[in-house]
Design a protein that fits this description.
The protein contains 4 helices and 12 strands.
Length: 199
């Protein structure tokens, strides 16, 4: 389990494979904290670390993950957000993030607002049904508060700390981003559906 509090960024060193799967190598100081088989979130996608070096790790990305996330277009030199799983008893500073991406959105607009930056992300209504104003969402693995929701879009406001410590500071219109909605919303919907069917 993750919390959406990015531990740092890394840089893609290499990508190999095809549409049936890929292997990515990521350069990062966090590699020193990984062991083979550990989970690590890369742009919000939970992957399993395999070959570990002093300053890099590799991970396999299956075809399903390539289809459902923005990892497919990654290339050498791209920056990625990284997070290690929360330790038992650790602080849950963001929200519950599983690393199971629900879909890909596209940055529609970026607007400066004082010291903050407002980012509008266009996405499908099927995902927006789980998004509420002042609720939580993970964008490229970063736990954020939803500022507003409209027809086909959501907005978040990014503080300087987030802009500096994550890849979200480089977002521009047209860029794809991974979205993970609050899992609690999905569980609530399923429970309500079952209650309605039983009633």
């Amino acid at each position: 389990m993750f919390t959406g509090l990015v531990a740092g960024t890394g840089r893609v060193a290499a990508v190999s494979g095809d549409g049936d799967g890929a292997r990515i190598a990521v350069e990062t100081d966090l590699a020193a904290e990984l062991a083979e088989g550990d989970s690590v979130a890369v742009n919000g996608v939970c992957l399993t670390a395999r070959e570990i070096g002093a300053d890099r790790f590799t991970a396999d990305v299956m075809a399903e993950t390539l289809r459902r996330s923005s990892l497919g277009p990654l290339a050498a030199g791209d920056a990625v957000n990284l997070e290690l799983p929360v330790a038992a008893g650790g602080r849950l500073g963001g929200h519950v993030v599983q690393g199971h991406v629900d879909g890909v959105g596209e940055v529609a607009a970026v607007t400066e607002e004082g010291f903050a930056r407002v980012v509008r992300v266009a996405t499908e209504q099927a995902l927006l049904r789980y998004v509420v104003e002042k609720g939580s969402i993970a964008i490229d693995g970063v736990s954020l508060t939803v500022a507003s929701v409209g027809d086909g879009w959501l907005e978040v406001s990014l503080i300087p700390e987030t802009l500096e410590r994550t890849t979200l500071g480089a977002l521009v219109p047209g860029r794809p981003v991974n979205l993970e909605v609050d899992v609690l919303a999905k569980y609530v919907e399923k429970l309500i559906d079952r209650t309605t069917e039983a009633g």
